Amino acid sequence: MHIVAKVVDTVAAPIGEVWSIISGFGGIKLWMPAVESCSLEGYGVGAVRLVKVNQGFVSERLEEVDPTQHRVVYRVLEPSPLPMKDAVGSIQLTALGPKSTRLEWVARAASLDVPKEQIEAFTAPFYRTNIDKLKELLGSV
Fold first, then answer.
1. Alpha carbon 127 to chain centroid, angstroms
2. Which of 8, 79, 83, 140 satisfies CB 3.0 to 4.6 Å to 135 for a cystine?
């Protein structure tokens, strides 16, 4: 698997508050401004969300949600408008202190249809915009 994008940031909020938002697999519209709609089929690991963004629709399956490790992993299902195959996203939270959380968001893919730099050029800003919205929601800006 190739790492195609990685964004690391610090959120000035307790890990539990950050986790309560990012662990809601079907609730991404709350903190992802580009998401026009999100519907969810199923519950827990194996649930599939259909996400409408300005580029079209993306289906993603929840692969892992670990409240102890504060980790969410999802897989982009085919067909996908993204220029990569077998794409997997992960968000990992780490407590830095009582009111500070490290957020690491990584995109990986088995193969790429375009150079990695092109994927990173749209993925990293998308992640950063979402993290900024998350900070705004948590009063961490």
1. 7
2. 140
How far apart are alpha carbons 6 and 108 in whole angstroms? Answer: 9
pLDDT confidence tier of residue 55, bands split at 50, 70 and 90: confident
Can you give the length of the chain in residues?
A: 141
We report the CATH number of the domain holding residue 89 as 3.30.530.20
User: What is the tens place of the pLDDT at every residue in 59-77?
Assistant: 999 999 999 999 999 999 9
User: In sequence order, which residues have a C-beta less than 8 Å from that of residue 97 and are 6 or more positions away?
Assistant: none
Cβ atoms within 10 Å, residue 95: 15
> With 80 as the cut, is the pLDDT of residue 106 above it?
yes
Number of domains in the chain: 1
